[in-house]
Amino acid sequence: MATILSVSGSPSATSRTARLLRHLDDRLRAQGHDVIPFDVRTLPPADFRHTAIVEATALFERADGIMIGTPVYKAAYSGLLKALLDLLPQYALAGKTVLPLATGGTTAHVLAIDYALRPVLNSMGPAHITPGWFTLGKDITEDDDGTLTVAPGAAGVLAQVTDQFSLALGGRPTLRRRREPAMTHVIADDAERILPRAELDELSASGLLGITVPRSHGGAEVSARTLGEVVRLRSAADAGIGQIPQHHFFFVMRVFERFRKRRAIDLMRVATAVCS
To answer: What does the pLDDT look like over 197-237, one tens digit per residue?
Structure first.
């Protein structure tokens, strides 16, 4: 089976991100993969010529798949992970399958994977970046005996995205959890790069794509917390459809930001003309 490098970009020795990754490592091993855990925080401060950095680069070269987890700080991935990615060769992910994961304290950061982490990963030449997932820190707890527990809702989606990543790497079907037919269809379509156009049309017809439109323009203007919950629930049913609309919501946000700025400028011009 495949060799997977499981990379934790957290600077903390007691990181929920790292514990979550090690929990998912076991799931991937059960599907026949060779998983290599790697905590970026163990690297010394050094440039790309240092032995530790050379060895880390070799780990990336050896791996068929890369699972990258990071805490979200100020709406972006960790500076520690950024430092490592900057030291790796430009196309260190060439030909590899990548699973991006993130953890954070609020659903306001739910878009950090797609608008902060995914672009830099994509610039490094991967063959495929599978749908990732953002997990709230409160959904990850550790029992007294050290056993990690993930809240049921988050655990279900994490299982789906991890299994999809495994499938892309040739994971052993007999060891994967039974899925509903719809989930099997989603994974097959993603592997074949087939866009779920009919499902997206249904999503559009439902009105959900307009929930971030300002009320002044006929929308619901929901909060970032509500949007994050909508994305979470939609992804629990269908991880593929749950990820795609995030680009739409970001685009809508940018359009209305520019609209508000332009309107403010126009009002200032009118006020200036009246006063003069």
So the answer is: 777 777 777 777 888 888 777 777 878 777 777 777 677 66
Question: Is residue 60 located within the same domain as residue 140?
Answer: yes
Consecutive H or E run containing 15: none
- Of 150, 173, 194, the one marking the end of a domain is 194
Rounded-to-integer distance, Cα 35 and Cα 65, Å: 9
**Same domain as 108, residue 60:** yes
Q: Which domain holds residue 243?
A: 196-276
The label of the residue with tokens 């060769």 reads 89
Distance, CA of 30 to chain centre: 23
Measured CA to CA, the distance from residue 243 to residue 117 in angstroms comes to: 14
> Does 140 share its domain with 40?
yes
pTM here is 0.68
Please, which residues have CB within 8 angstroms of residue 82's CB and are 6 or more apart in sequence? 120
Q: Please classify residue 272 by burial: count the beta carbons closer than 10 Å to its beta carbon, then call 0-12 exposed, 13-18 middle and 19+ buried.
A: exposed
